[in-house]
Specification:
eight-stranded antiparallel beta sheet, alpha+beta, binds guanosine-5'-triphosphate, six-stranded mixed beta sheet
């Protein structure tokens, strides 16, 4: 494997979004499963049967499948997703790519997360924007620990609707009892995670039974929906409950008289005349103008990329957040969070990481408190968190941090942790609450840079510099990634 460059942005979509036939936003879903459960085959089958595959792709599929067809003589639908594999082989790791398809009633965006090694991380990236999770299991194997982990992460990230796809049912001779046993076990798990909306569907992704077309002929005992019918019935995640949020990406000063603050609205709405506060400084101003790339607008909502002009001179820089006066996020030096550890080193207590949330990046000390036992669903005391662990932690900052609880706003409540030594993303997390005091965990205690020998201090500075450059690269990519803008724009 040759992953040398990590692109945190989304991959460019290969196809334009399917036309929205009704006045509804597309439903976003993620698929999760263990290796070989048939995830690629299922997504391929969905694209194929909903006719989201372009003719040239279809021709390639027929050609490439010939000669290496499976026992059933069907094309290898997983080949439809091979574009990502090719990118991986060029040394580029792409966390999530989005595929678009639609039925007569609705359009959908499925987050496709390639690769197994970093699966949990990829999954967490996809889950943060999804309305629904499709959890795949192999009908012969039933629920695995991996299924439990994925279901847990999906629920932690706020997904409240699951479809359990009991795949490869053709290989169990369409065994009804086996299907029901797996469904019941999964319902118990989902309930323990607080997820009540579960649809279990017996299916064969390979043969296309109960995916888009009914599997009646072979499973007359099943009278529930096909996968697409279940997706058509699903509800969109409810709107965020916070006020206006604009994480400032850039301050624009094209001339003496104009100063605008640019970013993508991460919550709520804004219109000229609204009172806003600039955090963390707490300065106050009114909105004078809202400008998009070619228009002056009379309002902007979450998902809009805007330039905001204020009615007075204030001091604003990248990483600040402009928010509505009457509904502000929480600011402070200590927060509680839940994280998923993503690297072999896990999370070390007392170590200083970079925390990145929106356009803001700051130093943080992470103190693990407990780890989730996936089998029992209990939180056990923990001082460290190994790779893949889901844990509760305390975060301690040495400069004011700004968050909404993730429950209220996924954009301003989510973050990643970066190891300053390696620049690896070591965790993804969600803020659950503000803490009233730092207790024993004062991040300033970790601020020993002044007492370090000069050469070591210099090294540390160099690391910081490197990290900040990396930050720029990342931001540029994200800005350039038409996919993300497009994707976010669909929400507007
Ligand atoms: N019989 C049968 N085989 C299936 C079905 N779905 C997938 N397969 C086969 O199972 C194997 C694995 O399928 P993939 O779609 O590659 O599985 P995956 O989970 O995406 O695996 P990775 O891409 O390795 O993560 C392939 O040989 C598929 O043809 C099914 O419903 N029935």
């Amino acid at each position: 494997m040759t992953a040398s460059v990590t692109v945190l942005a989304t991959a460019l979509p290969e196809a334009q979004p399917a036309p929205v036939t009704r006045d509804s936003r597309p439903l976003r879903l993620i698929t999760c499963g263990s290796v070989d459960d048939g995830k690629s085959t299922l997504i391929g089958r969905l694209l194929w049967d909903t006719k989201a595959v372009k003719e040239d792709q279809a021709a390639t599929l027929r050609r490439e499948s010939s000669g290496k067809q499976n026992d059933l003589g069907l094309p290898d639908f997983a080949l439809l997703l091979d574009g990502l594999q090719a990118e991986r082989e060029q040394g580029i790791t792409i966390d999530v790519a989005y595929r678009y398809f639609s039925s007569e009633k609705r359009s959908f965006i499925v987050a496709d997360t390639p690769g197994h090694e970093q699966y949990t991380r990829n999954m967490a990236t996809g889950a943060s924007t999804a309305d629904l999770a499709v959890l795949l299991v192999d009908a012969r194997a039933g629920l695995l620990e991996q299924t439990r982990r994925h279901a847990t992460i999906a629920s932690l990230m706020g997904i409240k609707q699951f479809v359990l796809a009991v795949n490869k049912i053709d290989l169990t001779n369409y065994d009804r009892a086996g299907f029901e046993a797996i469904s019941n076990e999964f319902r118990t798990l989902a309930l323990s995670l607080g997820v009540r909306q579960v649809t279990a569907i017996p299916m064969s992704a390979l043969k296309g039974e109960n995916v888009v077309y009914s599997g009646d002929a072979v499973m007359p005992w099943y009278d529930g929906p096909t996968l697409v019918e279940a997706l058509e019935l699903a509800t969109l995640r409810s709107a965020q409950t916070t006020g206006f949020r604009l994480p400032v990406q850039r301050v624009s000063r094209p001339g003496e008289s104009f100063r605008g603050y640019q970013g993508t609205v991460a919550g709520g709405a804004v219109k000229p005349g609204d009172g806003v506060a600039i955090l963390p400084s707490g300065q106050i101003a009114n909105v004078k103008q809202i400008v998009t790339f070619d228009l002056v607008r009379n309002a902007a909502v979450a998902g809009d990329a805007i330039t905001l002009v204020l009615d007075r001179q204030v001091d604003v820089s990248r990483g600040d957040m402009i928010v509505s006066l009457d509904s502000q996020p929480q600011t402070g030096l200590a927060f509680d969070a839940q994280i998923v550890a993503l690297q072999p080193d896990g999370i070390q207590p007392g170590k200083r990481y970079w925390l990145k949330s929106g356009s803001r990046r700051q130093r943080v000390v992470v103190q693990p408190v407990s780890q989730l036992d996936l089998k029992s669903g209990k939180w056990n005391h923990a001082d460290t968190l190994p790779m893949n662990a889901i844990g509760k932690v305390h975060l301690a900052f040495d400069e004011t941090a700004i968050f909404d609880p993730y429950e209220q706003n996924r954009a301003t409540g989510a973050f990643i942790l970066i190891d300053p030594d390696t620049n690896n993303t070591v965790a993804g997390g969600m803020v659950t609450a503000k803490r009233s005091d730092l207790g024993a965990l004062n991040a300033n205690d970790g601020r020993v840079i002044l007492s370090l020998p000069a050469d070591l201090a210099e090294q540390l500075m160099a690391t910081e510099l490197l990290a900040s450059r990396r930050d720029e690269v990342e931001t540029r990519r994200i800005t350039n990634a038409a996919a993300r803008d497009l994707f976010d724009g669909l929400d507007g």
